[in-house]
Every structure is written in structure tokens, then in C-alpha cells.
Design goal:
By secondary structure, this protein is mainly alpha-helical. The chain contains 3 helices and no strands. Its main location: membrane.
């Protein structure tokens, strides 16, 4: 092995402006996605305190109307109209 080999690293071109913008944009996009996922997973505490009876806030169940009563109300006039015939 008398011949010496010189190993030099390959020449890497300098990144262009577009490549730099793309690199940083992807980096900040990934951080933004992680923050969004963490915002969904971690509960957020409310800063305002409500009354002890809870009259100030309504839950989803309280806002949503029961479907059974609406169906029963729509059936009653139909039965009455059939009886009148």
C-alpha cells in the first residue's frame, strides 16, 4: 500500500435563498403543529370563576333539546287529524 489516497469530502453547494426559506418554514410549521396537538391534549383552565350554582354556564346536554319530545309532538297532531276524518 505504497500509494496514498487522499479522501476529501464532496463539495456541497451553498443553500440558495429558496432552500433556506423552505427549511425554516418547515421547521416553524412543525413547531406550530406540535403546539396545536398539545393544545388539544392538555386541558385549559378557565381564568374566570362562575357562581356556585352554575347558572352562568350551560353544558352541552343542557343546550341540546331532547329529540324524543320533538318526535312525540309531531306525532300527536297526525293522530288527531286521523281521528277527525
Amino acid at each position: 500500500m505504497a500509494a496514498e489516497r487522499h479522501y476529501s469530502p464532496p463539495e456541497i453547494p451553498e443553500p440558495t435563498l429558496m432552500e433556506t426559506v423552505l427549511h425554516h418554514g418547515l421547521f416553524f410549521g412543525a413547531i406550530f403543529q406540535l403546539l396545536c396537538v398539545l393544545a388539544i391534549i392538555l386541558p385549559v383552565s378557565q381564568s374566570r370563576k362562575t357562581d356556585s350554582d352554575g347558572s352562568g354556564t350551560k353544558t352541552w346536554e343542557a343546550v341540546k333539546k331532547p329529540k324524543a319530545s320533538a318526535a312525540q309532538l309531531s306525532k300527536k297532531p297526525k293522530k288527531e287529524s286521523k281521528k277527525k276524518r
